[in-house]
Design brief:
about 450 residues, mainly beta, RNA Polymerase Alpha Subunit, Chain A, domain 2, 4 domains, seven-stranded mixed sheet, five-stranded mixed sheet, 5 helices, c-di-AMP_regulator
Amino acid sequence: MKEFLQRNLGYKSISLVLAILFWLWVTSQGTSQTLDRDPTLTLSLVTKNTPANSVIMTKLPSVRVKTEGYNPSINVNEIFAYVDLSGSEPGEHEFEVKVDPIPNIKIVEITPRVVSLQLDTVEEKMLQVTVDLTGQPAPGSRVEDPIVKPSMVNVRGPSSLLNAVDKVLVELSVAGASDTLQVSRPLLFRDENGSAIFGPDPSAETITSSPTSVDIIVPIVAKELESKRVPLNAPTTGTPAEGKAVRSVRVVPNGVQVYGEAEALDNFDLLNIGPVNINGISRTTTYEISSDKVSLPDGLSYVSRTSFSVIVEIGNAIQDKTLYNLPITMKNLSQDLVLEQPLPAVSITIRAYPEVLDPLTHEQIALWLDATGKVAGEYTVKPYWQLPAGVEVVSVPDITYTLKAKAAPENPGDPDDPDGSDKPGDPNKPDNPDTKPSVE
């Protein structure tokens, strides 16, 4: 028997391989279709060259294409009817239905030949997420305000549908719950009547959001417990790298809800997170701190385990800079007074972050003295100044100046002879206007 099975083993192996190849070829033919003689095809309509930020608001119809000819190598699944939307603007437009040429096949008729499509502009906006809670918690428990992360989402869709979105919400049942619920839920879009919003094809997703779902914490606590939202503070230890400084320290979220007896909550007004060690850091750094590493006073608790983000913004340290030869002006000087000497140019030292100091010019700084109510005399004062935002004056010198009365004008004239007719010195004028000059 063994010898029989081993007889002509090579031929048997070749036959088995050929049988497998033939079976694969036969099964592959069932997944593709070829064009028979003179068929009428039903094709899906697709779009090409859709303008950026545009969307089709019309459900695309099927297209019947009558052909002549025969080409057995053509797969019907690779043939499409299409419309070209190049250069189209929002609104309703008619487009010619086209089919790319098929070798050895003649396109006799396309039905419909023209389709009317509505185009809309894709827009986006930030919207608040609301939580729709249903049901009642377990006896002896109560529901606190839910916490949504993130509380705002970016909603994107055709302008006509986006304008109809009145609410972005998640739905959650608290029926029978005795402990805090912490779940993730997809976002739903509703109009002002609370109805779902659909596009031309209800099966297609027309309005989207980023993110597509949110995390929800619904505090379920004993009825006898009180709650209070407490702000968060994050102290730091250490110093940043050389030449760097802390610009700001933020805690996200900026507060947390705590629960307990009213007496325990009364004197609890601030929760410290950390401290966080910033020693040697040279760039903005985020520290994640779990709530179970932050101690609460006795008798108080969180609604659930959470985490806090401490964001330490690091930038170049504040620097000082001295500016030289800055001019000073005098304002509100009385018309009867003048400066005895011109005001000198001065040097001042200012302080700011390097990105503010470096592009600063003399023209952005104004220095002046105010002579309102001043009389003749000597004064020593500090000037007033006006600087760009973020710039602070470190030092500015005192200015000493002297005011004096204006000098009387020279040759004011004789009050008894206002026109100056009695002044001697003009030989061409007679002393007596009634006497004519003699003629020699």
